[in-house]
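Researcher: Quick test of sequence recovery. Tokens follow.
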């Protein structure tokens, strides 16, 4: 069973997908703690509605990222977390956290990496004129969306798409892909060979 710590900054829809999958016994995991860097993140109330413990860890503007991550690490250890999920977490994490959870931090990104890393990936895809984009789950390393890819799924770009409509369609795929990735991890189905990740079904 995975012992999850979920990091959030916004509405937490991917977090809800994980919690629903656990509730429906489709994912062998237990969410130990949901942590947000934003005290008004809607995800916090949603987590509490599932009777999950929540914490707010606000950052100080002048504080180095490594100091923040050390506090984050302390909380994750305190709640006996063994796997971390970045579910719309807006901070870039550092080696302080990454080294402590090597190949145990998963992020989901709304593009087919390595295309369109960073913020506003959907807008980047539209601006580039892509016909297909999608989403990617990956292990987190010290770069921005550069970690080893676990799963990807394409989403067609429609002629009348806006950033909002495209984002919503990608998001529905994200919900499925993050649960699937965690399920593989919980069943020891993921094999890591250098940068490449294989699924041993």
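Model:
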């Amino acid at each position: 069973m995975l012992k999850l710590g979920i990091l959030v900054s916004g509405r937490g829809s991917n977090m809800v997908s994980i919690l629903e999958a656990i509730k429906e016994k489709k994912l062998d995991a237990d969410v130990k703690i949901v942590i947000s860097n934003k005290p008004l993140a809607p995800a916090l109330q949603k987590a509490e509605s599932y009777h999950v413990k929540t914490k707010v860890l606000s950052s100080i503007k002048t504080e180095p990222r490594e100091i923040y991550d050390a506090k984050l690490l302390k909380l994750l250890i305190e709640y006996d977390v063994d796997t971390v999920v970045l579910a719309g977490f807006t901070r870039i994490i550092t080696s302080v956290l990454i080294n402590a959870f090597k190949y145990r931090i998963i992020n989901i990104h709304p593009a087919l990496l390595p295309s369109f890393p960073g913020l506003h990936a959907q807008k980047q895809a539209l601006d580039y004129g892509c016909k297909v984009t999608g989403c990617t789950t990956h292990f987190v390393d010290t770069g921005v969306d550069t970690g080893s890819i676990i799963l990807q799924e394409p989403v067609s770009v429609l002629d009348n798409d806006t950033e909002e409509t495209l984002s919503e369609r990608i998001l529905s795929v994200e919900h499925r892909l993050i649960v699937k990735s965690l399920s593989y991890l919980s069943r020891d189905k993921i094999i890591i060979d250098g940068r490449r990740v294989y699924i041993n079904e």
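The helical segments are 13-23, 42-49, 65-78, 95-100, 121-128, 163-186.
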